[in-house]
């Protein structure tokens, strides 16, 4: 609710709609004082309105101010029971809820002791005005009021512990990431620092010898090539030593994500890819994750199938869905410049192609022919088929073998 520049809220948004339900029960105290007249009636109405104010304020305040508003609420219950109707005793359910919010053990027990005294006094002073037989009926409600704060406090404590645990887990994850970055930085410095310094010195020497001693300059250039290949090999070994996800693990995660999105998932072939390096498996796994993300977000598919074929010279992995489809094209390391539909999907394919180019792999995008799990087509198109082709012998590695 906005008044000019001032914005008014009845209750904090974090509590949702729950606080708006309880005020409905404030109709009962008005019903209980309907027989009063004159100034006593007006004072009773004012006390009920003030009780409603305490209810709202207790959602907003903390600390000593919270204690004061809670004490005022208890005093109003006692006054309404003593001077108007003992049936206002049921207003104690409001107070019982707020007592459960105390996290301090001492304050909680002081509050619940005062509350118990208020409720018992309310019944004692108003017992003469009760209808015969109502007092035994009201006792179970008194017990519920006194027990309820313990349950609310226990739930609040559990939620607090869960939040603290979540924060601790986030801190642990951040520390792990930071430690991993530091480890990678140390490894890069230790493994590549000397090699790159050598390449720099050699290239400066070649520049000086180019005009004076061409034969020696060529020899130094060949040495730079060998050193750069060694550096590339060191980088690949460093990446392989990092925690990498395998294709089998990526497909297992993909299955969980797709099934959660009500998309049937099938795998044909051996996902273990025996003999394929950790680096290659990690890159292919990232491509699988990207493809699955595109299927869930953009394809409108009801089925996805992965086919793995291993040949002597290459591995072919095909990811196909029965969604709205993309046009057929081969994607090189430069990615896709004009894909129909969502641009995010095009950017995803470009990233996949760039990753695959690191291991001399290719990505082919084609129209799919996959039907739904019930034999029907899901999208208005023919679906999409992504084929990832990975050579089992990377050309760069072959070159290193020739020069070794």
Can you lay out the helices and strands and say which pair or pack?
Elements: E1 2-3, E2 6-7, H1 27-32, H2 38-57, H3 63-83, H4 92-99, H5 105-126, H6 134-209, H7 214-241, H8 247-260, E3 264-268, H9 278-299, E4 303-310, E5 314-321, E6 329-331, H10 343-357, E7 362-367, E8 384-391, H11 395-403
Parallel strand pairs: 3-4
Antiparallel strand pairs: 1-2, 4-5, 5-8, 6-7, 7-8
Structural class comes to alpha+beta
Strand count: 8
Strand order of the largest sheet: 3-4-5-8-7-6
CATH architecture of the largest domain: 2-Layer Sandwich
| Average pLDDT metric | 79
Keywords: Coiled coil, Kinase, Membrane, Transferase, Transmembrane, Transmembrane helix, Two-component regulatory system
Transmembrane segments: 15-34, 41-60, 66-87, 108-127, 133-152
Protein name: histidine kinase
GO molecular function, one term: kinase activity
List keywords for this structure.
alpha+beta, Single alpha-helices involved in coiled-coils or other helix-helix interfaces, Heat Shock Protein 90, 3 domains, six-stranded mixed β-sheet, 8 strands, 60% helix, disordered C terminus
In short:
This protein has 404 residues and is α+β, with helices and mostly antiparallel strands.
Structure description:
The chain is α+β, with helices and mostly antiparallel strands and 404 residues long. The protein has 3 domains: 2-130; 180-241, Up-down Bundle (Single alpha-helices involved in coiled-coils or other helix-helix interfaces); 247-400, Heat Shock Protein 90 (2-Layer Sandwich), CATH 3.30.565. Helices cover 60% and strands 10% of the residues. The chain is built from 11 helices and 8 strands. The strands form 2 sheets. The chain has a 6-stranded mixed beta sheet, covered by helices on one side. α4 packs antiparallel against α5 (105-126). The N and C termini lie far apart (77 Å). The model is unreliable at 328-344 and 394-404 (pLDDT under 50).
């Amino acid at each position: 609710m906005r008044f000019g520049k001032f914005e008014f809220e009845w209750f904090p948004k974090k509590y949702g709609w729950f606080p708006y339900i309880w005020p409905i029960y404030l109709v009962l105290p008005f019903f209980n004082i309907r027989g009063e007249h004159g100034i006593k009636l007006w004072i009773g109405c004012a006390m009920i309105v003030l009780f409603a104010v305490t209810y709202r304020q207790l959602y907003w305040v903390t600390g000593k101010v919270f204690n004061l508003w809670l004490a005022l609420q208890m005093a109003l219950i006692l006054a309404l029971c003593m001077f108007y109707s003992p049936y206002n005793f049921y207003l104690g359910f409001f107070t019982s809820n707020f007592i459960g919010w105390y996290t301090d053990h001492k304050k909680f027990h002081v509050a619940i002791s005062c509350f118990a005294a208020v409720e018992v006094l309310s019944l004692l002073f108003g017992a003469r005005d009760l209808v015969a037989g109502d007092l035994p009926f009201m006792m179970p409600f008194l017990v519920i009021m006194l027990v309820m704060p313990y349950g609310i406090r226990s739930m609040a404590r559990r939620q607090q512990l869960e939040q603290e645990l979540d924060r601790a887990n986030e801190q642990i994850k951040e520390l792990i990431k930071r430690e991993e970055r530091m480890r990678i930085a140390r490894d890069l410095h230790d493994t590549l620092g000397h090699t790159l310094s050598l390449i720099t010195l050699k290239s400066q020497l070649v520049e000086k010898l180019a005009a004076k001693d061409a034969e020696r300059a060529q020899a130094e250039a060949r040495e730079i090539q060998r050193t750069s290949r060694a550096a590339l090999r060191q980088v690949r070994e460093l990446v392989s030593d990092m925690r990498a996800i395998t294709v089998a693990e990526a497909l297992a995660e993909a299955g969980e994500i797709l099934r959660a999105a009500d998309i049937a998932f099938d795998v044909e072939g051996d996902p273990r890819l025996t003999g394929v390096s950790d680096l290659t498996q990690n890159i292919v796994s990232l491509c699988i994750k990207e493809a699955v993300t595109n299927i869930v977000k953009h394809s409108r598919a009801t089925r996805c199938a992965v086919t793995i074929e291993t040949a002597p010279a290459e591995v072919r992995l095909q990811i196909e869905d029965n969604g709205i489809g993309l046009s057929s094209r081969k994607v090189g390391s430069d990615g896709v410049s004009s894909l129909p539909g969502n641009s995010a999907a095009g950017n995803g394919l470009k990233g996949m192609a760039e990753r695959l180019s690191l291991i001399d792999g290719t990505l082919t995008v084609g129209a799919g022919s996959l039907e739904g799990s019930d034999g029907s087509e899901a999208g208005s198109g023919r679906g999409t088929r992504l084929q990832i082709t990975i050579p089992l012998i990377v050309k760069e590695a072959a070159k290193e073998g020739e020069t070794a």
